[in-house]
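Backbone Fold Data
Goal — fold tokens
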Amino acid sequence: MAFQTKLSEAIQLKAKCELGEDEDRQQQVIQIIRQWLVQQPHLHQIRIDDYGIVCFARGCKYSLEKMKNKIDLMFTLRTALPEFFSGWDPMKPEIQAALACGSFLPLPDYDQHGRKVIIIRPGCYDPYRFKPEDIEKANFMISEVMVLDDEQMFVTGMVIIYDCQGYTLNHLTQRPLSLTKKHMYYLQSAPLSPKTINFIRTNSVFQTAYNVMSTMVNEKMKQRLRVHGSNMESLYKEVDQKILPKDFGGDGISLEELTDYWKKKVEEKREFLIESENNCRVDESRRPGKAKTAQDIFGIEGSFRKLNVD
């Protein structure tokens, strides 16, 4: 069955003008990528539908070579990062608890530029009670479910808001530096990168974390970082106030309601998430040339167990 877009006419026009997208080009790209996947023995286990291919196409502005590289890289990373992409059962007690924290909360409405807005809350959980790996698994599961129903963001882009309220030195020191490095590597390798990353409700610990994170992002990403601190008016210039949660002075639903919404949404998609874990594995034993290991990709991380802060 041919891919059928659910985009509004206005967003379809944007895709046509900015990405050169039309129905014929979509179908051609889907066919080429399908043929290419058949020719890649290490990717035979991968299950990617036409919608997924179109998402990659939009994120890569219909560059076939970039698409091939991104598809290979994304699924290679998902295989090499069991910390994030294994044990995807939302009913596991540790995942249930992580989902209830509300660490990763996409907003239901788009901003004034039609962009998806995602709130990330690194200080919303007790760092001594939760493993950061479980928080990240819950976050990536929410992201996976979000993408299922959010075709628009691959045309209009997304914006991230880091709400740093509650973030402490313990959050920083209890998270292995290697985990942060892998997370940042994955995010910068994804076909869709944020238009801006906005930090709000920051405190004294934030600057230390920000300095560490800044060393792990490329120059292009550094240009997209915005620190608003407690100046919410500054944030409103970047993201339409009306769509923001009540907690941020907006008219949208609260962070608590968003947390409940996404927890239920992920639970409803339990079967899909368990299957997607198995359907996204690269068979490195069949890769042409040299197999890729986590050490090849990320280097030796053994010395980065915990971040020491004076």
Q: What stands out?
A: Confidence is low (pLDDT under 50) at residues 301-310. The chain has 16 helices and five strands. Residues 103 and 121 are 5 Å apart (CA to CA).
